[in-house]
């Protein structure tokens, strides 16, 4: 950077001090625009990473058979999910027994989405998900045990009163104790804790740490309700077998459901990563919205900055005349005012980037994800600020450079 550029920056900073209120307000508008643009885009990256992490833990080689479409509505015009006949326990078990493919099959059901779990005087909020499952459920669903053990097949078939807890529940009920072999209350029943799951995260409501897993026979006995439906989770031995496994599963389950060759499927098959893919694809609308908000805000800032620079040219007319009389060229005057506009924008941009990083880090912490400084978005934000400053300052700078020095010296 040459001495002329440094001198222009020094004069720009001095000018900003002389019109501090107007300059600060413009900087704040620019900062808000950059915060909206960079902060939200960086946050979306965090959300994408968290979604991928949570759903990929289920494996790219697993899929689910359920009685209806997923309740996450993506890209079908807001239509209601198609309701299909519930999958009965007998149908689920028949499929498990007849599905002859190199894959692991698990049958599960939801006992409650809003249960309270108690241990002595400690209890959770009434937002605990209770599932009934078999001995294959943990592996197929991507859960890992941090302590204790999984269900034994005999415990599943016998409907024993045993439970596996999610990490959040174990921390809440047993802050200073080992939960293994302790007796907890779920609903009206008493259950012995045999295992605790590793933390899995609760991204966007798909909770993995606020769950209690009971044996499926126990849930059938104590949590039964009319039209109770069962979910079948299948994990093929290798990701390359996922499509053949789905094809085989469709054929087997159509037979189990008693469908004729021409009848439409009355069940849904969802790959484990399809919900995450749909959600991530849908985030492009959020990205577009954030971009539009940022552009509109920066457009307002550009107009405000141009107004400030025009007022500055008028207020400093005599100064411009004096500089020209002392030998300053049109290019010198133009560069001085352009530099001033760019400096205002860059200061606002830096403030916006700091706020954006804070916003992204906060969202990342609240979601339990990892946050990395989005250097690409930061670079883009500062580049946009430079362009805004250039565009906003160009007309006032050219106007200032064209002033007649004699008329400028006579200006009052």
Please give a structural write-up.
With 412 residues, the chain is α+β, with helices and mostly antiparallel strands. The chain has two domains: 3-54 and 278-410, no CATH class; 62-272, no CATH class. The protein is 54% helix and 16% strand. The chain has 13 helices and twelve strands. The chain has helices spanning 3-18, 20-56, 89-98, 137-140, 153-158, 167-173, 216-222, 242-256, 274-315, 317-325, 330-367, 375-401, 405-410; strands spanning 62-66, 103-115, 117-119, 122-123, 128-133, 145-148, 162-165, 183-186, 189-197, 211-215, 231-236, 268-271. Strands 1, 2, 3, 4, 5, 6, 7, 8, 9, 10, 11 and 12 form a twelve-stranded mixed sheet that branches. Helix 2 packs parallel to helix 11, helix 2 (20-56) runs antiparallel to helix 12 and helix 9 (274-315) runs antiparallel to helix 11. The protein is elongated. The two termini are 36 Å apart. The model is unreliable at 70-76 (pLDDT under 50).
Helix and strand sequence: HHEHEEEEHEHEHEEEHEHEHHHHH
Please bin the fraction of helical residues.
40-55%
On the 0-100 scale, what is the average pLDDT? 81
State the end-to-end CA separation.
Answer: 36 Å
Low-confidence runs: 70-76
Number of domains: 2
Number of helices: 13
Strand and helix map with partners:
Elements: H1 3-18, H2 20-56, E1 62-66, H3 89-98, E2 103-115, E3 117-119, E4 122-123, E5 128-133, H4 137-140, E6 145-148, H5 153-158, E7 162-165, H6 167-173, E8 183-186, E9 189-197, E10 211-215, H7 216-222, E11 231-236, H8 242-256, E12 268-271, H9 274-315, H10 317-325, H11 330-367, H12 375-401, H13 405-410
Parallel strand pairs: 5-10, 7-9
Antiparallel strand pairs: 1-11, 1-12, 2-5, 2-11, 3-4, 3-8, 6-9, 7-10, 8-9
Helix pairs in contact: 1-11, 2-9, 2-11, 2-12, 3-8, 9-11, 9-12, 11-12
